[in-house]
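Class prep. Sample record?

___
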Amino acid sequence: MPQADRIAALRRVAVSVRANQEALALLETANVGKPIGDSRGEVGMVADTFDYYAGAIDKFYGDTIPVDGGLDFTVREPIGVVAVIAPWNFPLAIASWNIAPALACGNAVIVKPHPTGILPMALSVRVARRVLAETGFDPNLVTLAVDSPEAPLGMRLVKHQYTAIVDFTGSARFGAWVEQNAHPALSYTETSGVNTVVLESMDDLE
């Protein structure tokens, strides 16, 4: 994947996301229940993320290390398949923080949304796949893995032999399992807590 082509692809994803901002935001609000203004801001963040990593692509360098009697140098290569397990409440932005850098570095991505947040993620993945195809890349560099509580896929993705990186955002329980079982894949987890809300008083709505 030549640098110039990766830059062009990520730039076009950002443009397409902005072109579909209202549709993505409406789906996000319908699925998650957040205010439409928040959803529009999240979609804008997705586009900004792809722009940022498009600009970073030609900034990745290997290192030349002086040694006696020879030359020692490093090159940066793709690591493999990145599995992204996204949460229900902030799915688009969190997924983009993984999809964009993975593509920037030449890796493939499998995105597994939360079962209650499939629609906005499906549209986002469709946008990315269309742009990849239009710019000469295999659209399967980005794929969507949809599951349900009755037939979960998370453990299979984490343990798959071709998975090189796992990024998980969600429950502390499954996050701990990912940390313990992802090896030899690299794992990055952000786990949730349970927040207590105390109502001091309220009006009688009757």
Remarks:
- The beta strands are 64-67, 70-73, 81-85, 108-112, 142-144, 163-170, 186-191.
